[in-house]
Amino acid sequence: MHLWIEEKELKEIKDKFPSIAINKEENFTYIQVKKSQLLEILRFLKDRLNYKMFIDFFCIDFPLHNPRFQGVYILFSPEKKKRVAVKVWAEDNSLPSVISLWKGAKWAEREAWDMFGVKFEGHENLVRMFLWEGYKYHPLRKDFPLKGYEEVYLPSLNLRPGEIPAHNYSPYHTEIPTMEDLERTQKKRMEKRNQIVLNWGPLHPGTHGTIWFLFDMEGEYIKNCDIILGQLHRGVEKIAENLTYTQFIPYTDRMDYISALCSQVAYVNAVEKLLGIEPPEKAKFIRTMMCELQRINSHLLWLGTYALDLGALTIFLYAFREREKIMDIIEGIAGIRLNSSYIRIGGVAKDLPEGALDVIKHFCEDFSEKIKEYETILTKNRIWLKRNVNVGIITEEDVYSYGLTGVVARSAGVPYDIRMIQPTDAYDKVDFELPLGTVGDCYDRYLLRMEEMRQSVNIVRQCVKKLEKMKDENYIASDNPYVLPTLEEVFNSIESMVKDFNLRIYGEQVPEGEIYLSGENPRGELGFYINSKGEGRPYRLRIRSGAFYNLQIFTKLIIGRTVADAVALLGSLDPVVGETDR
Amino acid sequence: MGIKKVGLNRNVQPQTLTEKIFFLDFMKGLKTTIKHLFRKVITVDFPFELVEPAPRFRGVHGLRNVDGTEKEDFDAWVKKLKIKPPEMGETRCIACKFCQAACPVPEIFIIKAEKLDVPEDHPHHGLKVLSQFDMDLSKCMFCGLCTLACPTVCIIHTDVYDLSSYTRRGWVLNKETLSKIADDFIARRGKEKYDEKSHWPDWQKIWDDSDTARAKAWDNNPPKLGPNYADQQ
Questions:
Q1: What is the DSSP letter of A46?
Q2: Which chain A residue has its CA at the smallest distance from B197's CA?
Q3: What is the pLDDT of residue A165?
Q4: For domain A236-581, which CATH number applies: 1.10.645.10, 1.10.10.10, 3.40.1010.10, 3.40.50.300?
Q5: How many residue pairs from chains A and B have C-beta atoms closer than 8 A?
Q6: What ipTM score was computed for the predicted complex, to two decimals?
Q7: Is residue A349 a contact partner of residue A342, using CB atoms and an 8 Å limit?
Q8: pTM surpassing 0.95?
């Protein structure tokens, strides 16, 4: 199922702006525009054609082309449920800023400046997004080596003189920020206008990871806020350009490490669409089932830590009790508790082991009772109500302007769920309800996640029922030339062995093309844009992270509130730093 | 499929006056916590009580030795790569470096094979032996791609999970250590994981259901394991 803009509307745009070029393909439809017309066309798309939701902006580097960088905007129309992409060449290494249209573009443009060195005219504060001020390079450019420039001498501290270092240890390291660099970064982000600038993080248990918040405070109240990201930036997009498609699967786990299976499924679905592989029915149901288990797992972790932040320690212990069971299930099926790398291109890595469905059924049986237990403690508790109700209200306008997705968007009453509007895997074959909030405050987001857990159990039950009848079906489409054969096939036939060898060493030779496909992560829409030049490695892989865009609204919602509310608000937005920083 | 509206005044009613006056919200919550006081303990007493990892668990790597359960085409691989035919108890590794090629972080491996220094009339003249096989596990993601690429089922994942070390050197395992880990693992749990031709059977139990430590973590009410599919029951 494709969500790209229809022919009729493309014609309407072409009539209005004759100079544009339209490229309509099955996986990616874009309009190529000139830089001078960009803002005009985007405004036309937003106001006239209702493509008012900002999904993503990113750049692609073409070193041999002049101008070198290409910017890509992806927009969504909530009424028509269609997407459109707009491409523009960055002449003179600069593009007009679109903050006036969508506020969500602010961080995306800063990221493009950080990674590619593309300037944005009219941006309010164009500073680096992930790296520190004063860093010399723009790492996602094609001429930047994968390992970086190893120019800082950093000898091992515990190496005695004369001792040979272990393995291939090198005393030279890529540049790391000094204290002065960090100070400069902090000063450039936010100006002190009030009484005190409070640093919250980067290592604070309330931030759920390594996020560095700057609060400009007037007494107890926050007057201005900015966030410094990048402490967990590993350059996953750069790594992807140097690996085969299968080898990148373990890295997708490590982005959103709390819901690894969901990220794997989102990535693998995009690659499969590009390759034209249809996974077998059984694999689809296994994926859906595992995704929903992972969603419950992720929401349980959120519930536990969120309640812990607001002072309810008991819930943390109760939630982890159930989470441990899901961890056990995932360990038994996939092999590892957290970063499972279980999904493969064309199916799943291994069939379900004996007893897996029994264990899952057993878990589903008493889980609804456990949710009731959590709710009796929290839902009507007066402290819980005081801390949550009417804190951090998100409006529908914010959702479109900031590109909010997932629970955060649904709490504002926007029915945006990728599982519904673009069902992948077996989501179109299972029945579930979409919970929607009414006010958009932290309390709504709490109720939504509790309701989502119930719906997920429901989906898992339906999948188990279907899987019980699929004994002899294949779990991986290994007859496809792009899919790695199973172990048994490799052992039994020489053709499979040659295919296995070729796929592992040279990678899947993906045909030339582009795709943008997303999956519903517990944190929001996790989109993968893949640009293939017909090689075994992607030319450009962009990860549209839901948590990255959701976190951006924090700076707006916190203004005028207290530090105590910051804890509640951040918890209810539920970012995972592995995904925001990538 | 449908849409379900949630929120205060929708599916949750605000606190009533009686609830506010008599602190019924706290009472209900405390009832739940007090009920838990009388439940059995679910925490596993870690260093004294261990949960046995599932058969599919991917822990520290091991290098298997020749023990008579090689795959049928093992000899053909040895011949093809000009490796000295290994005897009982010697490593199965044929230095093909498929594991390194399949690995997302190839810097983990240092694999070297050396030619044997023997006179020309010796039967092993011109053949190689594995001289170095180092793995830096501090860089490893335990994704399992190397074990699937191995043509001789030499490199395997064991169930060892304690990897802590005071220095980085402690995470660099050489071929002797890896062999020892694998031998130990095969002696303990080899039968559960591999059949007599080193194949990894699809039909394994998700975990050992007689494990008391795991049963504790499952609320002292562990699930009964049976076949997955309806027509097998």
A1: I
A2: A491
A3: 67
A4: 1.10.645.10
A5: 212
A6: 0.86
A7: yes
A8: no
